Amino acid sequence: MAALFAGRVLVANNSARDELDTERELARCLDNKVLLLYFAAAACPRCRAFSPLLRDFYVRLTDEFYVERASQLVLVYVSRDDTEEKQSRFLKSMPKRWLSLPFEDDFKRELAERFAVAAVPAVVVLAPDGRLIAANAVEEIRRAGPACFRNWQEAAALVDRNFLVAEDFDEVARRSLTDPVRRLKYKLGKKTRDEEEEEGGSAAR
């Protein structure tokens, strides 16, 4: 996923405003993770209503208090603000782990065109290999909250039973009751196929 920002600078949303501009820094922050591109503007009423929800969503999925694996999600804010001051003021109220493109970087416009973002807020969800998982997950996040990340993990082939939000535990416990049956069925099916191949080989001899 670092390839998407090759040759670009990403700014960490911390007090030092650290800049990530080397291939190694970008790879460390972006590779092997589900990437959210958040297109928004501080002056947009819809964005003002949605941003606190997205902030809480992100915190619940990246805070070790809620999950054991907090490194599978990264967010890059793609500002549609009309001044750098508005962008900076907005980011001060958002998580320190968020990244952003510098205000003056025209790559923001290119990203909007690439992912057909016509209106804000928009949350584009990308798999680690760059595949598009969701063109705009705003309504999904509103409706399902942190639970929707499980769908993104499965779509990105990142399913990890150690990465569970609190709400998932009951669901996983219920599924686990039928897991032994499924495993037994799979093993029986595999044994049958192996036996068929062996029988076929014996017939050939």
UniProtKB/TrEMBL annotation:
<dbReference type="Pfam" id="PF13905">
    <property type="entry name" value="Thioredoxin_8"/>
</dbReference>
<dbReference type="InterPro" id="IPR012336">
    <property type="entry name" value="Thioredoxin-like_fold"/>
</dbReference>
<dbReference type="InterPro" id="IPR036249">
    <property type="entry name" value="Thioredoxin-like_sf"/>
</dbReference>
<feature type="domain" description="Thioredoxin">
    <location>
        <begin position="1"/>
        <end position="158"/>
    </location>
</feature>
<dbReference type="GO" id="GO:0045494">
    <property type="term" value="P:photoreceptor cell maintenance"/>
</dbReference>
<dbReference type="InterPro" id="IPR029520">
    <property type="entry name" value="RdCVF"/>
</dbReference>
<dbReference type="InterPro" id="IPR013766">
    <property type="entry name" value="Thioredoxin_domain"/>
</dbReference>
<dbReference type="GO" id="GO:0005739">
    <property type="term" value="C:mitochondrion"/>
</dbReference>
<protein>
    <submittedName>
        <fullName>NXNL1 protein</fullName>
    </submittedName>
</protein>
